[in-house]
Amino acid sequence: GGPVGSEADELVDEDTQAQLIALGISSPVTRESAGARYHLELSRQLADFLLAGPLKRAGDLLPLPDVYCLFNRARGTELVSPDDLLAAVKLFGQARLPLSLRTFPSGFIAVQGAAHSDDAVCATLGRMAQPVKLAPGDGDTSAVPSLHAALGSPLTAVDVARELGCATAVAREHLVLAEARGILCRDEGPEGLRFFRNFFRDAAVLAG
């Protein structure tokens, strides 16, 4: 649908799309050419395609619908069905490829590269949410800087997607993960869902 296409288009510009279409997909694997090994060969071709650029540009975590969209766009007329794509992705491990299928607690499904690190992502989010430090002599005593000094900068999925170069849906999962690890706290209000530094944990550390 529209949202899937728009997410994929955000990750790949026109020049890159042209390059992807030329990345060895001129001879796409088909049932006729691969026979009983169709899904295994499709898995290898999909991995080659993703590792050639799309996965790294997406922060080593690409939503499965975007994988489907980009891969079929590169294959031209030899389209792969959703079921065949899922079967191919599930064979990454058997084919000993540096990719895996990841399902988040929310049910969100993505293809993950071996270079992806939840620890590194959470560390980045923690830094992004650090309090704003005013330079000496700024002299701004308004309520907003005081709030930021106490709570840190609020984070949204859009903020994280922009910083990490990933899809907004992936950014949302990163924020929820950081919340589960006690790094961030959520705030649901008139401005929507935002996440702040977990200063409760900081207070507990100081008290201990």
TrEMBL record:
GO terms for molecular function: phosphatidylinositol-3-phosphate binding; ubiquitin binding. GO terms for biological process: protein transport to vacuole involved in ubiquitin-dependent protein catabolic process via the multivesicular body sorting pathway. It is found in: Cytoplasm; Endosome. The keyword Secreted does not apply. The keyword Protein transport applies. GO terms for cellular component: ESCRT II complex; late endosome membrane. Component of the ESCRT-II complex (endosomal sorting complex required for transport II), which is required for multivesicular body (MVB) formation and sorting of endosomal cargo proteins into MVBs. Belongs to the VPS36 family. Component of the endosomal sorting complex required for transport II (ESCRT-II). This is Vacuolar protein-sorting-associated protein 36. It comes from Haematococcus lacustris (Green alga).
